[in-house]
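Example 365, ligand iron/sulfur cluster.
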Amino acid sequence: MAGPAPLLSVRDLGVTFATPRGPVRAVDSLSFDVPHGRTLGIVGESGSGKSVTSLAVMGLHTGAEVTGSVALDGRELVGLPDRELNRLRGRRMAMIFQDPLSSLHPYYTVGEQIAEHHRVHFGTRRAVARARAVEALAEVGIPEPGRRAGEYPHQFSGGMRQRVMIAMALVCEPDLLIADEPTTALDVTVQAQILDLLARLQQERRLSVVMITHDLGVVARVAHEVLVMYGGRAAEQAPVEALFASPAHPYTRGLLDSLPRLDDPDDVPLRAIPGSPPSLLDPAPGCAFAPRCARAAAGTEEERARCATERPALGGAGGPEAAGGGGVPGAPGVSGAPGVLGGHTAACHFAAFPAVAAHEGTTAP
Ligand SMILES: Nc1ncnc2c1ncn2[C@@H]1O[C@H](COP(=O)(O)OP(=O)(O)OP(=O)(O)O)[C@@H](O)[C@H]1O
Ligand code: SF4
Ligand SMILES: [Mg+2]
């Protein structure tokens, strides 16, 4: 049965850049939902299309061809004039980036910048906006917020600057927050504090969050659902517990295997996935992961030929029709959302869903 409509619904998203060497299809056939008050983790290697996806949701691509549908609370954003998108950015959806320094103006105090953001969107008087800015700094755990509002970005540490960015993103009380690698520049202790802060704010405000990261540890900490991207497409989508317990796609298994384990001896090298990400300029006809895939390498000649020539569709344990709890992958509608609303899907001809793994004689973890 269909649940409540998700806040963000992305269907068949495509983003293509025209380059001197030809079109680069950076995101292809991507569909996902983010329900109210939930966190979707988008994970993948460098170049897999995570940032291009988030910028497409925010309507921030200039000069790229964006196709498909991005609906926020049922309102289509693709093709919306800039003036209307500007109104939604900040108030309904906000974004925080990896490097807060590049997003903060060095000549204005952080209080002025947060207050200005509030004034632009709500038309509030200067004193009210300033008070809201101080409140916002307090909410994200900045000590002595009244005094620190009068300081400049360079007077804040990296972690505190990231808190300022979160305060700026949330001061207009958006429904959707997109965080693109918000903690990778921070040391692990500060990273943990920022992730805990985001998780707390997400719960308190029933925010919908898209957390973009290349770090599965971050996903495990904050996400309810996970979308694994490879070469601009969805490789696997699942609730976070299912993804970690039974990764169905060989790429996801490779990512999990490359995580350091507590019982590893100190001198064991990290197990990186061999090879490099696919070219998006001239994509090969079959599965984009085929040249790096351990499952394909261990398969029969016939299986390898299939991987090399036939692009796998995103499907559930019973094949593509079983994706998304009964829906058809990529099809519009809440229950048709592949994977993200409780289903588990993977784009692999030989996806190892638990039931299939048992049938093949392998043990599901
Ligand atoms: N303006 C552009 N013109 C051409 N290609 C682009 C442009 N922006 C991004 N791309 C390409 O799109 C692909 C996806 O880029 P994206 O920035 O989304 O990767 P990412 O997953 O965010 O990686 P990272 O983890 O390094 O941030 C890359 O191959 C990139 O080169
Ligand atoms: S379709 Fe083939 S190459 Fe692609 S992930 Fe599955 S087994 Fe590997
Ligand atoms: Mg990125």
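Summary: The first strand starts at residue 8 and ends at 19.
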